Backbone:
């Protein structure tokens, strides 16, 4: 058997995940896990960069993320699922990488600039950016380089960080005259980005998301608030699906081509009311997520099983990390 190529990817522990995570990232992981040797981790240190003063839910947030992954089909017998902080070798690699990373590289990181902007609007202009947050992209490079991954399946928003990681890997190889580190490429998903119920980017902090863990009732209630064609007041008004900002887009994601065609033509002819349309959409979404939600309930009721998966995966990841670190210490010239 030829050796499988490796992928590594992670998500910050932000608690229960939403449809954007599922469609944009997790679905891709589920598909890729059998083609690649896969390492998926919960980035709890990355969560700490902004939540260091609010850690009461940190542990539960980790568990919630892992349960969502398992429910969606990440298979712990196929993929290595672990928690970043349970692989402390990553922190040591982070130190070596931070030595070789020029300060202006982190300062110009576009994702970091955005995060800083959000923090400032939340906490006022006086808010300071902590040293750990400045190190966000370096730590992310350590996550990826620790497993010498070939590719990293992420959403489009992380592409700049991967470019950063490749720069760091190249610089390490140059400085220590080696070709040890691979330059990891992004593996993007073909699926279009799902917008939030209000038409903006879907996000937990925007209050416009639908969670994988939401009940059918909550899902339906949320879908009923989705923006439609704003020019339409009555069922008999001729509709414009292409101007139906959220509901029709969801149809295109969750419906079959035939369903989408029916919705489109009935809407255009004024034969379909928006409330009915969205109720039907909610039913289809609930049907799609029923098996996932059932599996989720199972893991919620079996926390010991989840704990075991996390412990075993983290052990496996650690063993791999120790191999890399041994080589890195040698290359850098440590005692
Ligand atoms: N920054 C990523 C996010 O916000 C999470 C992350 C941390 C990550 N380290 C990573 C993703 C390494 C891929 C590889 O979602
Ligand atoms: Fe959108 Fe459906 Fe209303 Fe048409 S009928 S505007 S597709 S919600």
Residues:
């Amino acid at each position: 058997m030829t050796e499988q190529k490796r992928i590594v990817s992670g998500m910050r522990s932000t608690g229960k995940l939403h449809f954007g995570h599922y469609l944009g990232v997790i679905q891709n992981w589920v598909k890729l896990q059998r083609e690649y040797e896969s390492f998926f981790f919960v980035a709890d240190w990355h969560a700490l960069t902004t939540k260091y003063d609010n850690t009461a839910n940190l542990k539960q947030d980790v568990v919630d993320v892992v349960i969502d992954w398992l429910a969606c089909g990440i298979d712990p017998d196929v993929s290595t699922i672990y928690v970043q902080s349970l692989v402390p070798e990553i922190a040591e690699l982070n130190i070596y990488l931070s030595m070789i990373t020029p300060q202006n590289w982190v300062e110009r990181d576009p994702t970091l600039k955005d995060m800083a902007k959000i923090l400032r609007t939340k906490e006022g202009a006086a808010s300071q950016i902590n040293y750990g947050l400045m190190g966000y992209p370096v730590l992310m490079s350590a996550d990826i380089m620790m497993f010498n991954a070939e590719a990293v399946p992420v959403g489009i928003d992380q592409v700049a960080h991967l470019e950063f990681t490749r720069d760091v890997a190249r610089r390490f190889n140059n400085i220590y005259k080696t070709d040890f580190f691979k330059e990891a490429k992004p593996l993007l998903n073909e699926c279009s980005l799902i917008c939030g119920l209000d038409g903006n980017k879907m996000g937990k902090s925007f209050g416009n998301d639908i969670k994988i863990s939401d009940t059918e009732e909550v899902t339906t209630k949320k879908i009923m608030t989705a923006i439609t064609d704003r020019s339409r007041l009555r069922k008999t008004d001729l509709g414009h699906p292409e101007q139906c900002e959220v509901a029709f887009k969801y149809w295109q994601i969750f419906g079959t081509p035939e369903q989408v065609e029916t919705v489109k033509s009935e809407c255009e002819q004024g034969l379909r009311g928006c409330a009915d349309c969205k109720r039907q959409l909610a039913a289809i979404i609930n049907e799609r997520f029923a098996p996932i939600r059932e599996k989720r309930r199972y893991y919620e009721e079996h926390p010991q099983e989840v704990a075991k998966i996390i412990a075993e995966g983290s052990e496996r990841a650690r063993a791999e990390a120790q191999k890399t670190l041994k080589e890195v210490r040698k290359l850098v010239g440590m005692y």
The pocket of tryptophan (ligand 1) is lined by residues 8-12, 43, 46, 140, 143-144, 152, 154, 158 (CB under 6 Å). Residues 303-332 form the longest helix (30 residues).
